[in-house]
Write a sequence for this structure.
């Protein structure tokens, strides 16, 4: 079976178009959605991500505020900034770009963001809401993957979904979303014994491990849907996924490329979460 490549760029374009229309409607009623992004330090990759978020926010007609702080910033100064944004009525979403410098406690920062403005969905209240099946903000990457699967027509009902990776940002929330969609879910990680024997059972395989090309054809059942969350900068200077794309492609019934797969969906869902937050505040 020849693989079918899922076009994340096209699906994200559609989502952004829908968000743009929602923004126009809300602005006509007097509310402009606003997103604040805080970047601490000068990491090149983080800086590029923040720039891309800023451009997209503006392109969809939303208010964008980017706060750049020195890499030696004290935790208390960052908390002050978050508290200011928590009470700023022009701001509906607050995102603190991760990772943070080592003098700052990431968990404490995430917990300081008001849950109603936590468009990343990282706050423990929103993580708990997802677990409990309550409405709240869902992390953008797993949310984007669900939208991709939906719009590709992948049926999850009763299917075996295997998630490789157990991070708070991707693996854990991804598993909860797949479970809510009635999949049978298995979570694998670095300590899993005989990984290929587990992943070969997957009808839908989500790879979120952060190791270039570690998912090969021996991990994939014929006809599986393969979602690659990896963004690894290879020795060739290019971006590579966690999946050995060329060798897995023939077995997969559908597969996401890197770049142009999951990546563009993440930013589209950040925009969607920001609009959702503004719509709630407007009511
Ligand atoms: N760093 C890498 N990915 C993300 C993300 O989705 N949100 C934040 N805040 N930081 C990140």
């Amino acid at each position: 079976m020849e693989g079918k490549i899922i076009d994340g760029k096209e699906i994200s374009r559609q989502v952004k178009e829908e968000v743009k229309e929602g923004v126009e409607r809300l602005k006509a009623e007097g509310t402009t959605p606003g997103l604040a992004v805080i970047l601490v330090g000068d990491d090149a990759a983080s800086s590029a991500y923040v720039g891309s978020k800023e451009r997209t926010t503006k392109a969809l007609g939303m208010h964008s505020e980017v706060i750049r702080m020195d890499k030696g910033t004290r935790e208390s100064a960052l908390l002050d900034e978050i508290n200011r944004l928590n009470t700023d009525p022009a701001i509906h979403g607050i995102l603190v770009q991760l990772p943070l410098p080592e003098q700052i406690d990431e968990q404490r920062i995430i917990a300081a963001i008001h849950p109603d403005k936590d468009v990343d969905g990282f706050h423990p209240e929103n993580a708990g809401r997802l677990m409990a099946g309550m409405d709240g903000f869902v992390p953008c990457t797993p949310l984007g993957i669900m939208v991709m699967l939906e719009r590709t027509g992948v049926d999850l009902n009763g299917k075996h979904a295997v998630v490789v990776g157990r991070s708070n940002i991707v693996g854990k929330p991804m598993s909860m979303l797949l479970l809510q969609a009635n999949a049978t879910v298995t979570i694998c990680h670095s300590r899993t014994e005989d990984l290929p024997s587990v992943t070969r059972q997957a009808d839908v395989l989500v790879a979120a491990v952060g190791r270039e090309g570690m998912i090969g054809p021996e991990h994939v059942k014929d006809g599986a849907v393969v979602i690659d969350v990896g963004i690894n900068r290879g020795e060739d200077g290019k971006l590579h996924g966690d999946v050995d794309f060329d060798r897995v492609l023939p077995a997969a019934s559908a597969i996401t490329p890197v770049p142009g797969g999951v990546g563009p969906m993440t930013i589209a869902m950040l925009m969607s979460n920001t609009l959702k937050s503004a719509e709630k505040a407007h009511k």
User: Anything to note?
Assistant: Residues 69 and 251 are 47 Å apart (CA to CA). Residues 30-114 form a domain with the Rossmann fold fold (CATH 3.40.50.10860). Strands lie at 34-40, 63-69, 93-96, 160-164, 184-188, 204-207, 225-228, 232-233, 239-240, 254-255.
